[in-house]
């Protein structure tokens, strides 16, 4: 994925996907720094725009309208996105420590992780309450609560600042619009409500609270949360079906362990946004502007972004830094539940629907920055080209993973030139996914595979490649034994080369160790792009062959389909239809599935399966037809029974497909009967890290499926083996 790129020599790591970092990534994509590798670390694939949160809670915005797709943004920026949570910084080794156990090296780093509003020190609040910041699951929990349709829902909001009152108003409006008679109560620890804004704006918001029936309790310190209640310090008990904490700004606790200079737990930065460590910058709510302290507000993060990016770029190149000068005050537009807002600046209040329209325009203009990215123009071909060049290039980018494999007919034709096995202890022939050797009273299985990079995260690619390669070992009923690695690195500076190899070997070593196998060596080389592969051996007392299906067998698939389509969509930054998940969330789900090992599923299926295979590049249809041809049988499957990854069917309906899918379709359809459509198209989708496909005795299928779902929740019985020559009938 770094074809013809300049060597990368410096690592820039953005910790968190806050507003300043999102804008920096967008600008970086249009003006990257040559030789720098950009990485963004964030717990999830999307980041919320907090300005639209009250409108979402009130029902004015869909969830997808307020979320920034960090996966698509990273693709635009040419950055790798690491979906994990930072929990520390080793400033001596210059590595960011991750919750998942990994480490990401940096030369220059920036922190933009926001703040929290949880109350972890109060009993019961971690279990029974939800924090507004970081947003995390707040929006999802709220939507589920609204969907419950309680006639008299009781909501308690802990925190009487602007954020607490704004969300209380939004909650009351949404529940009333749903036909409920809500009781929404705001708790203020002291006697003052809405500190930090002018008296006129405060009075206007209090009027809106009365209008929507939002109650206010002052001098009400919460003591603990229980199921269905908040208990105050004075002993009063408030019934609560939904408890929201918006109680001020709380820094993330791991910052205290970094050794950086802090104030009240926030990173102290200079006017260049540098911390006490010149290699580490900070922006947004997690930063404290030492020379010009300001309230925690998104407007400052947005305005910091250009200065932050310029200074990060200068730090990478050894240039001079700019100063950030925040404005003294800023316009506060506070929504009032319905499509209205109150404005406050310099203590002058305004109130009305026109302010909501103004705020809506501001918010939508911000989010429009992340709706579309400039397309990269393809390099123009010379005027004179060899015959067939344009056809060979095609109209799609070269896929990664199994989508980059050679088509089945081409491969089959080439394999005919291999001689048949001559040794008596070699039991498999050319074209088999894995070789079977006789080893004493048992068998040794050998397989090899490699993946062209589809992600810039080398650790993730290594984990997926390791489990993907072991798939053929597990499919044959063997236990992984030993592995040799084959790694092609793009051109990197010495430090980045060492860090990249460290990440790859740590990740694959962990994957093989979990499977009971050892990484015993391998080979590395420098090439045009990152490619990771393995040769793996396994041991078995009994081989589960590809052939062997019997009429009446149930067909079980252990993983959902769609990885090839989702990876193709991610490369093209395709947008999914509105109102559903964002593409980045679907891609993250695909990554999670691809990295999940097949060992537990194989342990369930191998003792019972008459035949089994690993679904990979030739798609479900191709691998199932291979099983049927080896068995001399046919099959019937139901499209509605086949599990699909989120977003895959919607993308297939848009015509999105991996570059290998047309060849898979052409190879399979002569032996198929099917009704075409988006779900049918996914039968030909090349799978990376796909599931096991097993033919099992029908009476045992339900019990096996129940056992599989402990580790493979998408596992499904998709059809039945029938008698007759190899043919696949597909019905709805």
Q: Overview of this structure, please?
A:
α1 packs parallel to α3 and α12 packs parallel to α13 (494-514). This protein has a 7-stranded mixed beta sheet with strand order 31-34-30-35-32-36-33, sandwiched between helices. A 5-stranded parallel beta sheet has the order 5-2-1-9-20, with helices on one face. It has a 5-stranded parallel beta sheet with strand order 10-17-11-12-13. Helices cover 31% and strands 24% of the residues. It is α/β, with parallel strands linked by helices and 732 residues long.
Kindly, what is the distance between the CA atoms of the first and last residues, rounded to a whole number of angstroms? Answer: 39 Å
Number of domains: 4
Helix content: 25-40%
Placed side by side, the strands forming the largest sheet appear as 31-34-30-35-32-36-33
Structure class: alpha/beta
CATH C-level of the largest domain:
Alpha Beta
Helical stretch count? 21
**What's the pLDDT, averaged over the residues?**
92
CATH H-tier superfamily of the largest domain:
FAD/NAD(P)-binding domain
Total E-strand runs: 36
At CATH's second level, what is the architecture of the largest domain? 3-Layer(bba) Sandwich
Main sheet record: 7 strands, mixed
């Amino acid at each position: 994925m770094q074809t013809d790129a300049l060597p990368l020599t410096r690592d820039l790591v953005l910790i968190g996907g806050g507003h300043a970092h999102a804008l920096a990534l967008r600008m970086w994509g249009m003006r990257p720094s040559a030789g720098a590798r950009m990485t963004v670390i964030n717990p999830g694939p999307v980041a919320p725009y907090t300005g639209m949160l009250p409108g979402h809670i009130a029902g004015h915005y869909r969830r997808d309208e307020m979320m920034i797709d960090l996966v698509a943004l990273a693709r635009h920026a040419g950055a790798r996105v690491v979906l994990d949570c930072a929990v520390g910084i080793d400033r001596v080794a210059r590595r960011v420590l991750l919750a998942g156990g990994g480490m990401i090296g940096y030369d220059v780093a920036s922190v933009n992780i926001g703040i929290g509003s949880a109350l972890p020190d109060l009993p019961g609040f971690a279990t029974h309450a939800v924090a507004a910041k970081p947003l995390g699951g707040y929006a999802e929990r709220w939507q589920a609560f609204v969907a419950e349709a309680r006639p008299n829902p009781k909501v308690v909001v802990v925190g009487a600042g602007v954020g607490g009152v704004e969300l209380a108003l939004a909650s009351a409006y949404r529940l009333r619009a749903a036909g409920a008679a809500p009781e929404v109560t705001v708790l203020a620890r002291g006697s003052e409500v809405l500190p930090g804004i002018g008296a006129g704006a405060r009075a206007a918001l209090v009027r809106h609270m009365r209008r929507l029936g939002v109650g206010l309790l002052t001098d009400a310190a919460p003591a603990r949360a229980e199921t269905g209640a908040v208990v105050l310090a004075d002993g009063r008990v408030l019934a609560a079906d939904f408890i929201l904490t918006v109680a001020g700004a709380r820094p993330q606790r791991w910052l205290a362990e970094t050794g950086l200079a802090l104030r009240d737990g926030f990173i102290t930065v200079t006017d260049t946004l540098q911390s006490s460590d010149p290699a580490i910058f900070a922006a947004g709510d997690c930063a404290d502007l030492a020379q010009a302290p300001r309230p925690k507000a998104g407007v400052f993060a947005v305005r910091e972004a250009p200065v932050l990016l310029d200074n990060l770029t200068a730090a990478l190149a050894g240039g001079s830094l700019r100063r950030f000068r925040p404005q003294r005050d800023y316009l506060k537009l506070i929504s009032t539940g319905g499509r209205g807002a109150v404005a406050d600046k310099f203590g002058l209040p305004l109130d009305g629907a026109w302010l909501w329209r103004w705020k809506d325009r501001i918010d939508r203009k911000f989010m429009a920055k992340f709706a579309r990215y400039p397309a990269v123009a393809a390099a123009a071909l010379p005027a004179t080209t060899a015959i067939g060049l344009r056809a060979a290039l095609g109209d799609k980018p070269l896929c990664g993973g199994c989508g980059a494999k050679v088509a089945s007919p081409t491969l089959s034709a080439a394999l005919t030139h291999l001689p048949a096995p001559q040794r008596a202890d070699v039991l498999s022939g050319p074209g088999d996914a894995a070789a079977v050797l006789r080893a004493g009273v048992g068998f040794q299985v050998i397989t090899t595979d490699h993946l062209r990079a589809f992600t810039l995260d080398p650790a993730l690619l290594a984990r997926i490649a390791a489990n993907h390669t072991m798939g053929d070992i597990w499919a044959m009923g063997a236990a992984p034994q030993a592995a040799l690695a084959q790694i092609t690195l793009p051109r990197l500076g010495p430090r980045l080369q060492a860090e990249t190899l460290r990440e790859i070997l740590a990740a694959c070593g962990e994957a093989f160790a979990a499977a009971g196998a050892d990484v015993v060596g391998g080979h590395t080389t420098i090439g045009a792009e990152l490619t990771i592969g393995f040769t793996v051996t396994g041991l078995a007392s009994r081989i589960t062959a590809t052939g062997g299906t019997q009429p009446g067998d149930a067909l079980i698939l252990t993983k959902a389909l769609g990885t090839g389509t989702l990876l193709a969509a991610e490369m093209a930054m395709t947008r999914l239809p509105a109102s559903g998940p964002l593409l980045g969330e679907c891609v993250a789900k695909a990554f999670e599935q691809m990295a999940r090992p097949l060992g537990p599923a194989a342990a369930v299926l191998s003792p019972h399966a008459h035949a089994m295979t690993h679904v990979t590049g030739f798609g479900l249809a191709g691998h199932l037809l291979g099983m049927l041809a080896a068995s001399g049988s046919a099959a019937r499957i139901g499209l509605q029974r086949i599990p699909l990854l989120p977003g895959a069917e919607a993308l297939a309906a848009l015509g999105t497909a991996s570059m290998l899918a047309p060849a898979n379709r052409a190879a399979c359809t002569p032996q198929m009967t099917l009704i075409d459509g988006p779900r049918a198209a996914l039968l030909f989708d090349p799978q990376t890290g796909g599931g096991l496909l097993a033919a099992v005795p029908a009476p045992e299928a339900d019990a096996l499926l129940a056992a599989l779902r402990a580790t493979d929740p998408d596992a499904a019985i998709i059809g039945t083996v029938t008698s007759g020559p190899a043919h696949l009938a597909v019905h709805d």
